[in-house]
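Morning!

This is the sequence you dropped in the shared folder:
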Amino acid sequence: MSLPQQLRDESDFDQLPHNIAVSATIADIEEKKGFIDYFMFVVEVRTKGGSKYLIYRRYREFFNLHQILESKYSPENPEKPGPNTCVLPALPGKVFMGNKRQIAESRIPELNTYMKRLLGLPTWFLLEEALRMFFYQTDQDSQHQPRALRRLRPPTRIVRKVKPKMDLFSSPRAEAMFDFRGNGKAELNLKRGEVIFLLQRVNADWLEGTVNNQTGIFPQSFVKIIKPLPNSDTEGEGECPTYSCLRCFLLTPSGVDTRDVCVQEDLTIQPTYKELLSRMRNVFKVDDIAVNYRDPEGDLIRILDDDDVQLMIKESRGQQGKVKRPVNQFPWELHVTLASDLSVYNVEA
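The structure's back. C-alpha cells below.
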C-alpha cells in the first residue's frame, strides 16, 4: 500500500463513529432449550471507542447477514471488483445432519476467521447498516447472563499485596482438584491438593483467592468447594430454569406411543408451527409426520400453519376447567400421525 493510500485509510478510520465494531471473537456457545433446541454463539465485540460487550447470535443470523452483504457488495467478477464492491470472506456452509453441539463447536474457528476478515474490509464497508445492526448489542443481549465464557478470561486484576488473616475452620475455601498454570501475575498457579482461601467471586466461572501467600484469580472448574463464599451459589449462577410438560401421542398402525416432553418454555408460550413440527420429528425420530390436535368434539384436526396453532391453544384453554392436568403441563396436547395418513383433515373453524 502506498503512503498516501495508507494515510487516507487511517484518516477514514479516525472519522468512524466510536460505536463501530472493529473486532469480534466467539467466547462460548450456549444451548437454548425450548420447543426446538439450538445453540447460540456468545460473541465478544470490541468497538472503535474501546468498549466491549457480548452479543448472542445463531448461525442462521450469520447466514442471513452474509446473504444481504453478498447481494449488495459482491462483484460480478471477483478478479475485478468495482468501486462499491468487495470480495467477502467465505462463510461456513449449512450442515443438516449431525450432533448440534459438535456442529456448533466445529464452526467456532471458521466463524472467528469470518468475522475477523469481515471487519477487516475497507472502512466504508463498516458503515453498512446490516453489519452494524448485527454487531449492535440489543436490550435482549445486554440482559442475557452468560452461563460460561470458556474462551475468555476475566479482565486483568491488580494483585492484592495485603495478606488476609486466615481461619482454617471458618474461612471460605476450596481444594485444587487439578494443576493449573496461571496466565500472568493476576492468576494463581495451583497444584492438586492445595487449599485455596476464597476472597470473592469474579464471575460465573472464576474465583479470587489466596494460596502460598499469593493472591489471584483461578477457574472454579479446577477446584472443589469445601466451604462456599457467603451468599454464593457455588453450583451455578442464577436460578434453575423452569420446565413445562407437553403431552404428545404418536399414532401409528401398530399402536399409540405416549410421551411427556419437557420444554424450557412458559405455559403461556405460543410456539410456531415449524417449531412444533421440528420438535416432534426430533422426539419421535420420524421425519414424515404431521401434527394434529383434538377439538372440543373429540375430532382430530391437522395443524398446517401458525393460525391453526393459535386456534388449538384457544380451544384448549376453553377446556381447562373440564380436564385435570398437572400445574406444569400445557393445556393442549399434540397428536402426531404419519403425513401419509389422510384420515385426518384440517377443517374450517
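Headline: The two ends are 68 Å apart (CA to CA).

More detail when I'm at my desk.
O.
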